[in-house]
Amino acid sequence: MKNGKKIRNELKRSRQELEKKIVKRTADLFKANKSLKTSEKKYSTLVEKSNDGIVIIQDGLLKFVNPAVTKFTGFSKDEAINKSFINFVSPKYKGLVIERYKKRLLGEKVPNKYEIEIISKNGKNVSVEVNASIITHEGKWADMAILRETTERKETEKILEEERKKMEAIYNTASEGLALYDAEGRVIDFNPSLRKLFGLKKEIKNVKRKEIAGNREQYFKYLLERFDDSLKTQKEVYSGKTVSNVLMKIHSNPPKYLEGTYVPIINDKKVQGMLASFRDVTTLKNQAEEIAQQLIEVEKQRNRWEAVFENVEEGVFVIDGDNMLSRMNGSCELMTGFEEREVVGKPYYQIFGCHDTQGNKFPEFHPIDKVYKTNSAIPYDEHLHRNQEGNEIWVGVSYTPILSDNGVIEQVVGVIRDITAIKQTEKAKSEFVSVASHELRTPLTVIHGYLSLLLNGDLGDMRSDISRINYINALNKIYGETKRLTKLVEELLNISRIEERRLKLYTRKSILAIAIDEVISEFKPLAESKGLHLEFIYDKKLDGTYVLIDRDKFKQVLVNLLDNAIKYTEKGNVTIKSIAKNGEILTQVSDTGTGIPTGLKNKVFEKFQQVGVSYLKENKGTGLGLYIVKAIVELHKGRIWCDSQINIGTTFTFTLPIVA
């Protein structure tokens, strides 16, 4: 009995101890579970909020992607999950990624960190740094990779590398000291001239300017005295400003002066570094007058290319390998109606509205296609553009490819010029040739006809009165047509003299009213034959007022204006009016004729502009008369202009200076 009781007591104690352990274990499990949930929550938050992309790859498929991945690739989770991860890798990195993925799963030792490019949704490559490791996911081995986007860093490195290459090109030839700094003001590179100019005694490569400025005696053989605040200058440059004409003194024996220019290296409106150039201006410093001119030259050199690019009359633009605009100067902005900031990254053929005479546009009409096919420049081509306002213009364009080291076209530089006026002139010349041919052929035909009649005796016997009248009429016709030919040839000769500045004036003091009266008396019969009233109105005070004129050339001006006025007026008046105003005599030739269309008023004084042909059925002239009139008036130091309204009339006004 005692033994049974003892056994029961021991069993009871054991059970109690076991119950305590179970309670404690349960509490521990509850606490661990709570801690695990907290950790999972923190981990989930970390993964979801991370700026780095996180992906899990299992059996070659993407099983997990966090928001950062979708942000810099553009693909949504649904577009990525359960898709082959290799489809998102740039072709040139696929082999490397597959090899390392397989080796990690097999347990082989491979570098965890490496850089690749992945393809974003818009088709562009995104540079990323990969940090990969093996994990278990849902009971199976998987590959987890942390992706850190490095595109911006790559761009910065590319820009700095380009600047470094530029420095290398002039490394051994430039007399100026050159130094290249990164975004933190650290010296990336410098040339031998800089070492010589400053007398360096300690390596400055990979040293920040702040460190050099605070310990100059350690880096330079001689005392360096600057006439600016070195760090303040740096701050200005890194804010995007160019700082020029920074003077410094090297206390060598003899002392010398250096001049520094600091230029920011900018990409995508961000300062990525700084380029500094230094030159010895000791001689200029000692010659005050000469130094001013030299400093101007330095400024000119610094701004030369930018000034050429922005201010050249021709439009200059740069397109990348995808036919997207990357630069455009002010002339291009005027031609297209767009500002540069509006067009960067857009297809050039859309902005310029390129098309041919048949109306074909891109891709049927591709102006630069020949450049890509031949890897060579197109020296000159002509086609049509349409600007933002919808206006169509003719352009002359040259295209020059910029090739990479392996001969691939990276960019194409286009130089464009508006040749609409040239095309219009060519058209006007063509029309002029047609008109001139007609004007020459008509009198020649008449002369030939009458001469044939005379030579063949078809006009009868000269002893007959009727025959003599026929002979006289024929001779008058021949004489009149000869005058027409002479006038046309004289106009052509005058054009040549005007353009070669050989048209001479033989002037003398004259009373203008007398010269005008002479011309009016010649035109009155013609005006009366058309039923027109021709009158001359002038202030009597002008009787004692003189002008300095070539009487023959002045008569040519008035004859042309009166002839046009009578020619284009069917009924009404033709009036000449002269008044004195502000030391000049203003003479107006007015009619009540058909008028000149608004679009032609500014062109009537241009060569080959046949106003009559433009809006009347009948050919009325060669289009040279008013051009010659304007040239003659300007040779007399006067001005001429035109006012007109359709079906109301036209007034030509010209001035001549009054002389004592």
Topology:
Blueprint: H1 2-49, E1 53-58, E2 61-65, H2 67-73, H3 77-80, H4 91-105, E3 113-119, E4 125-137, E5 140-149, H5 151-169, E6 177-181, E7 187-190, H6 192-198, H7 209-214, H8 216-219, E8 224-226, H9 230-238, E9 243-250, E10 256-267, E11 270-280, H10 282-286, H11 288-311, E12 315-320, E13 325-328, H12 330-336, H13 340-343, H14 348-352, H15 369-374, E14 378-386, E15 392-403, E16 409-418, H16 420-456, H17 465-499, E17 508-511, H18 512-529, E18 533-538, E19 546-549, H19 551-567, E20 573-581, E21 584-591, H20 598-601, H21 611-615, H22 625-635, E22 640-645, E23 649-659
Parallel strand pairs: 18-20
Antiparallel strand pairs: 1-2, 1-5, 3-4, 4-5, 6-7, 6-11, 8-9, 9-10, 10-11, 12-13, 12-16, 14-15, 15-16, 17-19, 19-23, 20-21, 21-23, 22-23
Helix pairs in contact: 16-17, 17-22, 18-19, 19-22
Describe the protein.
There is one protein chain. The protein is of the alpha+beta class. It has six domains: 1-45; 50-148, Beta-Lactamase, CATH 3.30.450.20; 154-284, 2-Layer Sandwich (Beta-Lactamase), CATH 3.30.450.20; 315-416, PAS domain (Beta-Lactamase, 2-Layer Sandwich), CATH 3.30.450; 423-499, Signal transduction histidine kinase, dimerisation/phosphotransfer (DHp) domain (Helix Hairpins); 508-659, 2-Layer Sandwich (Heat Shock Protein 90), CATH 3.30.565.10. Helices cover 45% and strands 26% of the residues. Strands 17, 18, 19, 20, 21, 22 and 23 form a seven-stranded mixed sheet that branches. It has a six-stranded antiparallel sheet with strand order 7-6-11-10-9-8, sandwiched between helices. Strand 20 (573-581) and strand 21 form a beta hairpin. The longest helix has 48 residues, at 2-49. The protein is elongated, with a radius of gyration of 44 Å. The model is unreliable at 612-619 (pLDDT under 50).
